[in-house]
Each structure stands twice: as C-alpha cells, then as structure tokens.
C-alpha cells in the first residue's frame, strides 16, 4: 500500500463516516505514518467514546493497520457547534 | 535463607549493605493485587528451596507501606522483582511469571542447582525450562487467560514495554497520566506474549495498544482516557467506584 497522504485520508474518512468535517494532521512530518484526526459526523449521535472509536477503527481498518500511529477525536455536529467549532 | 519481610527503610539499608557479595532478591508486592498472592507464595517457596544457600538474601517489601523504597527503585507496578549484587542491579522483572524469576535467579546466583550434588566441570549456564511453554493454547483457554489478566488488578494497563521503560510513545503517555493521577495499576507487557497481544485485540475489539481495563471493563486507548480525564478529573476514581 502506498503511503497515505493527508488529503486522501481525509477523503476516505469523509466518505466512510459521512463526516461533515474532517481535519487530518500528519504528525510524522509528512511520511504518512502518524495521523491525528478530528471527525465531526452525525453517525456519532448517541454513541459513547468507546463506540465512536470502534466505529472509526472499523471503518478505517486497512488504513490504520498500514500506519504506525493514529489518534482520533469524534464529535457529533451538535457537540461540535456547542464548543464553537474548534477543539 | 527464609524470606525477610522488610519493616522499615533502616532495616532495608542495613540488610542490603551488610554483605555486598550476596545476591539480593527484592520482591515488591501489595496486599490488594491478586497476582501478588500467588507470587508471594512462589517467592517463599523459592527462598525455602535455597535456604541452605547463604549467598542469596530474599527480601520482601510491601510497596505501599514502604513507598520510599519502591520509589528509589522506581517500582510502579507489582509484583516486581529486582536482583542486586554489589549495589548493582543485575535484573529487574515485573509481572507474575515464576519461571522468569527462577531462571533469572539461577542465572545470577553463585551456586547453580547442579553444583549442590557434584562439582560441575564448568560454570553451568542458567537452565531455561522452556519445554513446558510451547503447548498450543485453545481459543477458549486464551480467552480465559485474557479474562484473568484483564481483572488481575482493579486497573490493568496492557502496554508495549513496562512502565519504567515503555516501548512506545502512546504507552508512555498513558503511564504518565496514570502516575500523574497517582493511580495504582497492574500492567502487562504485550510485547512479551504474542498470543495475548493478538488475542486481546479481538477480546477488546480494539486494534491498538495501550489498552486500559478498569474493574475488568475495557475503557479504551490513550485518546479515550485523555478525553475522559479532560471531562472528569476524577475519571479513574469514578470508574473504579462504578464497578465496585
């Protein structure tokens, strides 16, 4: 598998998790090995942290398996709005 | 020599400085950690079997009561073993693995077991009793073992490496968080046991490490714990109470 880039990864997340907003940060200095992502998606509604993470982990199984480090935060659109659209 | 239960730091200093040529085996335990119960009796049995060997000193230390000593050695998980000679740490072992402890003890003791019967032709290398271990474990057995491991302490951390030398940044961060909140925890080094490493991913339905269990309930990885702490400074306490 070729190295993941911020843009392709972002697109994948957007599609698979019906995300309204995705930020992807490459923490490995561009080598595509470590990503920190924030995902805002209605799919998270009514799910606790563990369930949200599992949802993301399952949706991105292959991608996560191919990289070294993956950090995620998931919000529903409402939660995201409530905290002013930033972490 | 029988096991000497350390009662004070002064006693500890005195005993450990008494004779520097001795091999000193330190065993750190706590009353509350179930794996310690097993290891306490293992430690006593081993000490008993070596009672005719004056060159080994067996000291057992309650890591809670004598936290100064635990801190000197940076013991942050129990059971924990340290072998010392000439004020030098020869070996540190954490976790409840009697075989590992015995083999380390044999490796560093002056008198390997065979020598008791007959003079050995050459210094015998430490005997590693590995034969028994290779038995294939069924999925059921593995799951039972995982169940036991995840409940081995109220808070169990499955990590890469040990708290004193984490082998991955995420594991390191989670250890730091636990310490910062002065949380007692047991841990398991998944790098030491690949069947646990692979099995636990399925068991927890979680692809990465570290993984944290509280009262046998999977809590999540580093991200979740971080978020939970941000939301509730007393997250660990509350999670512990919830399952109690």
TrEMBL record, chain A:
One GO cellular component term: cytosol
Family membership: Belongs to the BolA/IbaG family.
PANTHER family, A to Z: BOLA-LIKE PROTEIN 2, BOLA-LIKE PROTEIN-RELATED
Organism this protein belongs to: Spathaspora passalidarum (strain NRRL Y-27907 / 11-Y1)
Full protein name: BolA-like protein
GO MF annotation terms: 2 iron, 2 sulfur cluster binding
Classification of source organism: Eukaryota, Fungi, Dikarya, Ascomycota, Saccharomycotina
Domain of life the protein comes from: Eukaryota
Gene Ontology process terms (BP): cellular response to iron ion; intracellular iron ion homeostasis; negative regulation of transcription by RNA polymerase II; positive regulation of transcription by RNA polymerase II; protein maturation
Pfam family of the protein (one): BolA
Automatic annotation (TrEMBL), chain B:
Annotated GO CC locations: cytosol; iron-sulfur cluster assembly complex; nucleus
Keywords: 2Fe-2S, Iron, Iron-sulfur, Metal-binding, Redox-active center
Ribonucleoprotein keyword on record: no
The UniProt record lists the keyword Iron-sulfur: yes
Annotated ranges, domain Thioredoxin: 1-110
Record-level GO BP terms: actin cytoskeleton organization; intracellular iron ion homeostasis
UniProt-listed Pfam families: Glutaredoxin (PF00462), Thioredoxin (PF00085)
Top-level lineage group: Eukaryota
Molecular function GO terms recorded: 2 iron, 2 sulfur cluster binding; glutathione disulfide oxidoreductase activity; metal ion binding; RNA polymerase II-specific DNA-binding transcription factor binding
Record function comment: Monothiol glutaredoxin involved in the biogenesis of iron-sulfur clusters. Binds one iron-sulfur cluster per dimer. The iron-sulfur cluster is bound between subunits, and is complexed by a bound glutathione and a cysteine residue from each subunit.
Subunit structure: Homodimer. Heterodimer with FRA2.
PANTHER family according to UniProt: GLUTAREDOXIN FAMILY MEMBER (PTHR10293), GLUTAREDOXIN-3 (PTHR10293:SF73)
Family note: Belongs to the glutaredoxin family. Monothiol subfamily.
Name of the featured protein: Monothiol glutaredoxin-3
Biological source species: Spathaspora passalidarum (strain NRRL Y-27907 / 11-Y1)
């Amino acid at each position: 598998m070729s190295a993941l880039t911020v843009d392709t990864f972002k697109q994948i997340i957007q599609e698979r998790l019906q995300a309204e907003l995705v930020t992807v940060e490459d923490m490995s200095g561009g080598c595509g090995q470590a990503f920190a992502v924030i995902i805002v998606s209605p799919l998270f509604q009514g799910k606790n942290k563990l369930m949200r993470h599992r949802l993301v982990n399952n949706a991105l199984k292959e991608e996560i398996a191919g990289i070294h480090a993956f950090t995620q935060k998931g919000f529903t659109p409402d939660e995201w709005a409530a905290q002013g659209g930033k972490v | 020599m029988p096991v000497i239960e350390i009662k004070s730091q002064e006693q500890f200093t005195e005993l450990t400085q008494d004779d520097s040529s001795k091999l000193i085996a330190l065993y750190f335990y706590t009353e509350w950690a179930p794996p310690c119960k097993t290891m306490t009796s293992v430690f006593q049995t081993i000490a008993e079997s070596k009672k005719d060997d004056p060159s080994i000193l067996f000291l057992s230390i309650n890591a809670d009561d004598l936290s100064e000593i635990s801190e000197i050695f940076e013991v942050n998980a129990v059971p924990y073993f340290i072998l010392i000679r000439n004020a030098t740490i020869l070996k540190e072992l954490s976790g409840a693995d009697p075989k590992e402890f015995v083999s380390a003890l044999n490796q560093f003791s002056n008198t390997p077991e065979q020598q008791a019967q007959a003079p050995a032709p050459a210094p015998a290398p430490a005997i590693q009793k590995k034969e028994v271990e290779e038995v294939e474990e069924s999925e059921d057995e593995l799951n039972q073992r995982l169940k036991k491991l995840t409940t081995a302490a109220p808070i169990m951390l499955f990590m890469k490496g040990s708290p004193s030398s984490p082998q991955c940044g995420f594991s390191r961060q989670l250890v730091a968080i636990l310490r910062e909140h002065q949380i007692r925890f047991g841990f398991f080094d998944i790098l030491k046991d690949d069947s646990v490493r692979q099995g636990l991913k399925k068991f927890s339905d979680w692809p990465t490490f570290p993984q944290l269990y509280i009262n046998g309930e999977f809590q999540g990885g580093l991200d979740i714990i971080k978020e939970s702490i941000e939301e509730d400074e007393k997250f660990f306490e509350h999670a512990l109470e919830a399952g109690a």
